[in-house]
Amino acid sequence: MRMTTHRTATPPRPGGDDGGAHDVGAATARCPLTSHVFEMAMEPKDVHVAKARRTTATVLKQWSLPEAPAEDARLVVSELVFNAIIHGSGDVRLRLRHDDHELRIRVTDDGTAPARRRRASAAGLGGRGLHLVACLSLRWGVADGGRTTYAVIPTLTEAPPCRRTMQSSTDPTC
């Protein structure tokens, strides 16, 4: 298992209202000056789901992420890594990137079949993972020709749809 972590400088976003001035205070209000990035690669073995979850918990604690989004992120990482191990091929790569308002989770493998939500039967054990990811994330999707599944977890004020308000028990989306 290979792991790396680093901080990257993020330049101010174009189109800001600073008129081209380089006032650090003005830029900080619009975008983060640094982002935290963590990456790890692992062989596709079931035991690595728990290791990815524990490592994610440790990294997010080091980044001082609040407990509620960190808990959501641990579950999302578990589901996405498990799906990559079961349905993908080759080594599984996890990438976490946190700036001041969201955590981006990317899980990549060498398979090209994109992840997709399935309807779980009452007796079935599978088919619920991406439903949970959708409920805990601000948004999720597939990229890189089906090789990467990603999710975005809000870390400040904006909560995912399922966490914003109490959902009706008949709401099929959450």
Question: Could you describe the 3D structure shown?
Answer:
By secondary structure, the chain is an alpha+beta fold. The chain has a domain at 33-112 and 129-159: Histidine kinase-like ATPase, C-terminal domain (Heat Shock Protein 90). 32% of the residues lie in helices and 25% in strands. It is built from five helices and six strands. The protein has helices at 24-30, 47-62, 67-87, 129-136, 161-164, and strands at residues 2-9, 34-42, 92-98, 102-108, 139-143, 148-154. The protein has a six-stranded antiparallel beta sheet. A hairpin with a 3-residue loop joins strand 3 and strand 4 (102-108). The longest helix has 21 residues, at 67-87. The radius of gyration is 17 Å and the shape is globular.
Features:
single chain, 174 residues, alpha+beta, Heat Shock Protein 90, 6-stranded antiparallel sheet, 25% strand, globular, disordered C terminus, ATP-binding, HATPase_dom, serine/threonine-protein kinase, ATP binding
How would you classify the helix and strand content by structural class? alpha+beta
Name of the CATH architecture of the domain at 33-112 and 129-159: 2-Layer Sandwich
CATH H-tier superfamily of the domain at 33-112 and 129-159:
Histidine kinase-like ATPase, C-terminal domain
How do the strands of the widest beta sheet line up side by side?
Answer: 1-2-3-4-6-5
Question: Helical stretch count?
Answer: 5
What percentage of the residues does DSSP assign to strands (E)? 15-25%
> Which shape, going by the Cα principal axes?
globular
Largest sheet: 6 strands, antiparallel
Q: Based on DSSP secondary structure assignment, what is the total number of beta strands?
A: 6
What's the CATH first level of the domain at 33-112 and 129-159? Alpha Beta
Helix and strand sequence: EHEHHEEHEEH
Question: Could you please say which CATH topology of the domain at 33-112 and 129-159 applies here?
Answer: Heat Shock Protein 90
Portion in helices: 25-40%
The N- and C-terminal alpha carbons lie at a distance of 34 Å
- Return residue spans where pLDDT drops below 50 for at least 5 consecutive residues: 8-33, 164-174
Mean pLDDT: 76
- Give the radius of gyration: 17 Å
Pfam families: HATPase_c_2
Organism: Streptomyces antnestii
Keywords: ATP-binding, Kinase, Nucleotide-binding, Serine/threonine-protein kinase, Transferase
Domain Histidine kinase/HSP90-like ATPase: 45-140
